[in-house]
Amino acid sequence: MVSSGDVDRLFLQAILSRGVMSSQLAQVIWGKCIKAVNESNDALNVRHSKEKDAWEGFVSKINKSLDKLDLEFRALHDESSGKEIKGDEIAQLATEYTPAEITFFKAIVEQIMLAPREAYVISDMAALREPALVGLTSMTKMQAEVILTSFVQKGWLLRSKAGHYSLSTRSLLELLPYLKSNYPDEILECTICLDIMTRGIACHTVNCKTRLHFHCFANYRRRHDTCPSCSTAWPRGAKDKPLLPVGEGAYAGDGRRRTRTITPSDEEDTEEEPEQPSQDPPPPKKAARGNVKKEQRREADMEVDNEEDEEDIQQAPTQATQRPRRSTRR
Ligand SMILES: [Zn+2]
Ligand SMILES: [Zn+2]
């Protein structure tokens, strides 16, 4: 017989199977668990409230029930859910930055994640325009510049010689749950090591999804000369044509600014009231982003390869040190 206690059980199962998630998603799941339980037993009418108190009450109840379990399970759960229930990993930045600066940081991260052609960079010009575009009207360009420098100095962003900002290893590791929940369609996984990647190579075959870190390419290429997915012949070097760059090498101008489509759960984001005031109608491109689009972008890449490659080669030494480390996630 389904009882109200099943809400907790369902919720814990969902949390444990997902590992890490944002607090918004956790609250959506909570609502769905309540709905499922109410629907399977007419006599039950478990109340669901979007009030913060109700959610906090539920979290503390869950934690109490976990207390009764053995230590090992509790530790596992604390690892995987204790952290995420507190929310947004980006809140780590809160110890160092003001809410306005965090809003700015999120805007930069968004532009990096939504950069066209898997470039995963934002130019310094575009970065300085962001505060005004996300409603931080009192932040001057000079202030923005100082804050950007601080993001680089504290290891959250990298700045290339060409003046492009990208995500640092620190950001890729520490903000991974945030990136995964906010940019699930933009995150690329290396075909070999399965870690997130924002710089490396893409197979040139249309519709081939192979993406490799530079170091993963080097290891793989020593023993194989064809793509692991589509078996097309590959050149020797990661920078050789017709392989395509992922990361700064794919940058070819800022193009039209893109923003993420706002979903209902985003509205609960308390961190930043003025999230996207300039977000009137979402750019038409956005809705259609996906693998098909990506392939089209990839095709467009090939036309501009020439100019990119020179830039690419100059960047090679930096890229070697900027590679995301392998995480323990396997
Ligand atoms: Zn890899
Ligand atoms: Zn391929």
TrEMBL record:
Gene3D superfamilies named among the record's database cross-references: 3.90.1150.220, Winged helix-like DNA-binding domain superfamily/Winged helix DNA-binding domain, Zinc/RING finger domain, C3HC4 (zinc finger)
Substrates-to-products reaction catalysed? S-ubiquitinyl-[E2 ubiquitin-conjugating enzyme]-L-cysteine + [acceptor protein]-L-lysine = [E2 ubiquitin-conjugating enzyme]-L-cysteine + N(6)-ubiquitinyl-[acceptor protein]-L-lysine
The entry's keywords = DNA damage, DNA recombination, DNA repair, Metal-binding, Nucleus, Transferase, Ubl conjugation pathway, Zinc, Zinc-finger
GO terms under biological process: double-strand break repair via homologous recombination
Q: Where is the composition biased (Acidic residues)?
A: 265-275, 302-313
Matching entries from InterPro entries are given as: Nse1, Nse1_RING_C4HC3-type, WH-like_DNA-bd_sf, Znf_RING, Znf_RING/FYVE/PHD
Record field: transmembrane: none
Subcellular location per the Swiss-Prot or TrEMBL entry: Nucleus
Report the EC code(s) recorded for this entry.
Answer: 2.3.2.27
Q: Which residues form the RING-type domain?
A: 190-231
Q: Which family, according to UniProt?
A: Belongs to the NSE1 family.
Task: Spell out the protein name for this chain.
Answer: Non-structural maintenance of chromosomes element 1 homolog
The protein's organism comes out as Psilocybe cyanescens
